[in-house]
Amino acid sequence: MAPATRERVLAAIEELGYMPDLTARSLRLKRTNTITVFVPDIVNPFFGLLLTGAQDEALQAGYDLLIYHTGGHRELERKALQLALSGRADAMIGVPYDLERADLKPLTLRGIPTAMLARASELDPDRTSGIDLVDVPSEAAAVMLVEHLVARGHTRIAIINGRAGTPPQINRENGYRQVLLRHGIPIDEGLIYNGDFDESTGYTRMVEVLARPDRPTAVFAATDSIAIGAMIASREAGVRIPEQIAIGGIDDIPAARLVSPALTTVNQHHDQLGRELVRLVLSRLHDPHPGPGRTVTGRFDLMVREST
Amino acid sequence: MAPATRERVLAAIEELGYMPDLTARSLRLKRTNTITVFVPDIVNPFFGLLLTGAQDEALQAGYDLLIYHTGGHRELERKALQLALSGRADAMIGVPYDLERADLKPLTLRGIPTAMLARASELDPDRTSGIDLVDVPSEAAAVMLVEHLVARGHTRIAIINGRAGTPPQINRENGYRQVLLRHGIPIDEGLIYNGDFDESTGYTRMVEVLARPDRPTAVFAATDSIAIGAMIASREAGVRIPEQIAIGGIDDIPAARLVSPALTTVNQHHDQLGRELVRLVLSRLHDPHPGPGRTVTGRFDLMVREST
DNA sequence: TTGAAAGCGCTAACAG
DNA sequence: CTGTTAGCGCTTTCAA
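ok -> structure tokens follow
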């Protein structure tokens, strides 16, 4: 092509704002350069950090990350999966709250790289589905925190947990029960509270906890947001932390270090979880061997601070 | 078609997991049934609530909402716009931190419904671009809060603000200056602090504020997250709120009501802002008359609580 | 090196 | 009512 013509074409592109139609390109190439991720709660900083890590990893590999908010509702989780099934995304990652194994089957059948933040035991016990899993250490994190409380001498420990029936709620309660059982501490079902994974639940449930005649000496909050709500309720009631009641959370959100007393919690390295999810699908995108589903277990660390 | 045949086809669909290819459908129909929204900060609860409202509105109208996280970087904001330009979304909404009017021009040229959360004066002073705007009352909200502080008798008021150069930072500082000017209160540039829109900034900047020999009697925090960080720093320093220092924020995030003392703040009705953005593009989607750009001004309310 | 044509999977229009 | 066909905008292949 003559350089002059070339110039004029480029000028016209600029002038008219021409931009290749990605829909047509995708149809032709069977590839969108897009990864879709669904999360149950866009307001929760836990998922915000996970998404930030995931996006960073995706962008570096030349993929766009599109986020779909499900609220943890199965119907919307299924809609998210359909985005990949119908060719709108090359790979699917997400945090399922209400999906069954069967829901994911069509993805693996069609060879769409899929990675979920979930425990194998929930979603795919025998690991034959071919989806990759990042095993979120939800239960182990709970065990670690409650063990810490027991080691501090607590035997009456309440748990303020999130939405009943969701994987994190179930796992954390399981971890809680495990530790008490192991130490021969009787489980008082009245000390088990559920609600949502937010400050407001922490606050209102803590008011109830503090009103008990047989008040516990420690509270295991399922998330730092819950813990912070509980700390506010304690302070208002004039109950000193940790002298009169100890409080521990899970997540290590940025605010955990800032509250006073600083919150003892378990850091789950959210951004790394997001990165790992993206890495898993990227490896299948680059090397389309089907291969069996891999499982990566997230790391976590107990952050002992002042609240316990 | 014979009912039996119909049965068999449906069975085959089920069996093979057939699903129509949305890429092909989109190419044919020139329509994706998708709205894309970009936000500068997915961790900030402000945007979480905005997105929740937006998604609810979009789903009700039969559209999927896909979220793109920009971090407020122009390069990623442009990438988000390209998703709509290249046919991957029917409409574009977003919260620009670093876009110029020229960046949005191609969208209106191609008739893509576009609504931004921004002030007209920033993005489109003479309103000829044809994009719809939700005018976020950032500056007016700042005015309202600082007026409240002045009415309470404060004349030495610090401002702890977010990322320098971003629209909310600029607007809030403008509002702050306006009020002081109006009341003939001299502006001490040393009382103007910037950082990020988060707790950590509130904490570290407040430590500096409290260390001043000429300590102010009130602090205007640009967001509730900043305010909460500042409150924690005050409590640690043994400085009582509001007796020794008053603190007010903007946003009315859920935690604002829970902290103690409860935070005085300005509720911007985030979810409504999100809903309004979606409604604006939906109306153009349903009625493709070009029409001039509309401006909707967000409502806001001063929530006087205990911290001022 | 340049140009023409086929085809990705769908829907709408049209013919039978 | 059913069946066929054209064509959305792109990329790739093949021919000139």
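The mean pLDDT of chain B is 94.
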